[in-house]
Design goal:
Layout lengths: L2 H5 L21 H9 L3 H9 L7 E6 L3 H14 L5 E6 L6 H9 L5 E2 L10 E5 L7 H4 L3 E6 L9 E6 L6 H11 L6 H14 L9 H11 L4 H9 L7 H10 L1 E3 L2 E8 L4 H10 L7 E8 L2 E8 L6 H9 L5 E3 L3 E7 L5 H5 L3 H9 L4
Parallel strand pairs: 1-2, 1-4, 2-3, 4-5, 5-6, 8-9
Antiparallel strand pairs: 7-8, 9-10, 10-12, 11-12
Helix pairs in contact: 4-7, 4-8, 5-10, 7-8, 7-9, 8-9
């Protein structure tokens, strides 16, 4: 079938060739993924299911976002009745309000990875990520990794399904469900639908025919009202005060809007404000800043026409902190210690405007 299985057995969890313990050959994740890619959906499902036994206690590990939550939810459904127990654990703190709304409204059961006793589980699955993406993820040996990011090196798992051309891991998870003839519940269908929408940014980013087919197939099973609620929930009640501060601080000149919101408890509110301000007619640039922890976070938005937000962010802040992004959207996160004290203490919208104007004529 593949060059790996021609000469070598599938590796065990530590990457040793099971056929020949003296064999030094270690297939890379990409090599294993390549042989998984050649399988049909049903063969892939069968290979995946072979890993698990009735008395297994399975932990699905994710870095929570809509796509990872949805795909983990699908795999939990797939394995639920085949193993003794299955739990979803998220490595990150869930900050985005949309993601909290998704978790609550679609009742996706999850626990924080750091509160999990790993020794009470017998098998681990990593969804929508790879061990190299975070040290917390690398601390676990996985039986299966299912993901759509480009394959990285230096880790091993018995089963690896990586398809970087896919717009969402949710689509991959859906294919497993479909191959096992499971009809997703309304909550699961809505999750997968939102997972695909979110990762492909409504199909404006990379997606395959499979993503479109999945999207079309599950559409009839979703709850549109729940989806709307999840998609529009992006502000906490406690964050409404920042909207007032943002509007009070606004300065408009030369078709550009600037606003500094001082201290915020979550940098996402800066993104919400910046995105809202792009709705203003006849405005080419929106630049919103705020202080989050020990950083000045600056969000850039523009229409992208003869403009480049990523380049501007890098020009203004690149020397004092990470800054960059795309043509239409970018951000900078400048450690406050890299700014002169006099500037930090009296930072206002005018300060922001002056910093930008040095680089924007
Ligand atoms: Mn994803």
């Amino acid at each position: 079938m593949s060059s790996i299985t021609d000469k070598h057995n599938q590796p065990d969890n530590k990457g040793r060739c099971q056929e020949d313990k003296t064999c030094a050959y270690l297939p890379s994740p990409e090599q294993i993924a390549r042989s998984t890619r050649r399988l049909s959906n049903r063969e892939r499902l069968r290979t995946f299911l072979q890993i698990f036994k009735k008395d297994d206690r399975v932990l699905i590990v994710i870095v929570a976002d809509p796509d990872s939550m949805a795909s983990a939810y699908a795999i939990k459904r797939l394995l639920g009745r085949r193993v003794e127990d299955i739990v979803i654990a998220h490595q990150n703190e869930i900050m985005r309000v949309n993601n909290i709304a998704m978790m609550e409204l679609l009742k996706i059961p999850m626990q924080r990875l750091r509160s999990i006793k790993k020794e009470s589980f017998t098998k681990f699955i990593l969804m929508d990520s790879q061990p190299t993406h975070h040290p917390d993820l690398a601390a676990i040996t996985y039986s299966a990794v299912i993901d759509h990011h480009p394959a990285t090196e230096g880790w091993i798992a018995k089963f690896i399904d990586i398809r970087p051309e896919y717009g969402a891991t949710s689509t991959m998870a859906f294919e497993y469900l479909k191959a096992s003839k499971i009809k997703p519940s309304v909550a699961l269908a809505t999750s997968l639908f939102y997972g695909i929408k979110s990762d492909t940014q409504n199909f404006t980013k990379k997606a395959t025919q499979s993503d479109i087919l999945c999207f079309q197939y599950i559409f009839k099973g979703i709850n549109q009202q729940l989806l709307n609620k999840i998609e529009t929930s992006d502000i906490r009640r406690s964050e409404l005060k920042y909207l007032r501060l943002a509007f009070d601080g606004i300065k408009v000149s030369k078709h550009r809007i600037y606003s500094h919101i001082e201290k915020v408890t979550n940098p996402d509110i800066l993104v919400v404000v910046a995105d809202f301000l792009t709705h203003v007619h006849d405005v080419g640039w929106v630049i919103v800043s705020g202080v989050y922890g020990d950083k000045l976070v600056v969000i850039f938005r523009c229409d992208g026409y003869k403009k480049d937000a990523g380049k501007l962010a890098a020009r203004v802040f690149g020397e004092i902190g990470p800054a960059g992004g795309h043509k239409e959207s970018a951000r900078a996160e400048v450690p406050l210690k890299n700014l002169p004290d006099a500037i930090i203490q009296k930072f206002t919208t005018s300060t922001l405007q002056r910093m930008i104007l040095k680089h924007l004529k």
